[in-house]
Known about the structure:
Elements: H1 5-15, E1 20-24, H2 46-54, E2 59-64, H3 69-76, E3 83-86, E4 91-92, H4 100-115, E5 122-125, E6 129-133, H5 140-153, E7 159-163, E8 166-170, H6 176-187, E9 191-196, H7 201-207, E10 213-217, E11 226-228, H8 231-245
Parallel strand pairs: 1-2, 1-9, 2-3, 9-10, 10-11
Antiparallel strand pairs: 3-4, 5-6, 6-8, 7-8
Helix pairs in contact: 1-8, 2-8, 4-5, 6-7
Amino acid sequence: MTLPGELVDALAALAARRPLLVASDYDGVLARLRDEPSDAVPEQGVAAALDRLAAVRGVTVALVSGRGVDDLRTTSGLTGPFRWVGSHGAEFDGPLTGELAGRRNALVQLLRPVVEQTAGARLEVKPASVAVHVRQVQDRAAAAALLDEARTRVDPSLTMKPGKDVLELAVTDADKGSALRRLRAELGAAGTLYMGDDVTDEDGFRALAGDDVTVKVGEGATAARFRVADPVAALAVLQRLGDLLG
């Protein structure tokens, strides 16, 4: 696949820097979006591309997702020596501990009856949040109304993370931007690649430096420097970077 020339040039410059952080969202980037989240397996070739990058000295590969870490590991089936960041940055290399589960459970009790009244809607319970999914709601007016009602019913101090046919309500204020800044600091990274496709990835794009490589996958307004069309093109980005590093 042919990538934009400016993106190829930026990847070439990035490949010369060490330590290097290669980070990506999962759903919509490394895996196609699915109606059933457990069906979102990686695109063919993703595992090999990530393993190849992680094998390069001075390169760290990180998966940064709204999913919980356990869910991300299980669904993706990826097993490389990666850094795992889940729940939009609230989980760092492993599941959350502490009192947050109680606050999350209260949200479940509040929202489940509301979600069950809309055919096709689904409430997903994550380690540090709950997510109201309306992708499978055929009545689009009802889908929008449900998301609006969810917003009005919860404590406005909660962190709200809107996405594609989903509203996630988090019991922490962590985001992908703070997670990427933390990773960069821990690694002393001289350069970063970050790819994402959704609204929550914009925090990650904005958190990085102007000479880092940020890639929006798909349509929509973005703060990223570059854009590619879909997960197939995102894989091509990883493969091109692997070629440059090799």
